[in-house]
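User: My instructor asked us to take a sequence, write out its structure as tokens, and then describe one feature of it. I'm not sure where to start. Here is the sequence I was given:
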Amino acid sequence: MNTAKRTNPARVALTRAIESKVERMDMAGLLDLAAALKVPVPAAAKAVRGAERQPLARSSERDGRVLRGSGVGPVVSPAEGRRRLDAITVDDQSADWIESELVGAGELVERLGISRGTLDNWRKANKIIALRKGLRNFLYPLRQFERRSPVSGLDRVVPFFGSPEEAWEWLVAPNRMTAGKPPIEKLRNGDVAMVTSAAESAFDYA
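Assistant: Let's start with the prediction itself. The structure tokens for your sequence are:
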């Protein structure tokens, strides 16, 4: 009977797959496989393995040069460390919105002498900034009001931002597009067009 007919097709396919895999392995992989299968390794292959595992000589050693760093520097006292940190630390004025005076709806309507309905209408029309507190309550920054009304222009600025919190943070941070002043102060001075233009381009360089 023909030997090819007695050969198991699955065995042939598996053998070819293994051979193909082995042919693509590098020397290090082949040596590891030989070790796992306990196959004797020729002396020539052992020599190659030793060469591959030899650490590369540093360029500085080949040149005869030795590179040395300056180290961690002199140790200073905690007081001197704080002094040096203070000298290079820049205040993050973008967090000023957190320090703004915030009041709840009840206190605000009492201070302004308005109805709760008026406050809700202002909020829904983006005429004021309302920072969410919980699921249904809001806090209102007092800095956005002039006398008994919201400063003009907030409804033109707020739509450019993803949330009231983001809009308020932008409004109270000094901005080069508003002459280095917080945009909310420019709105209070009536510079609505300037602040609107600045808000429109707020993310141009993000």
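For the description part of your assignment, you could build on this observation: The chain has a mean pLDDT of 79. Try explaining in your own words what that tells you about the chain.
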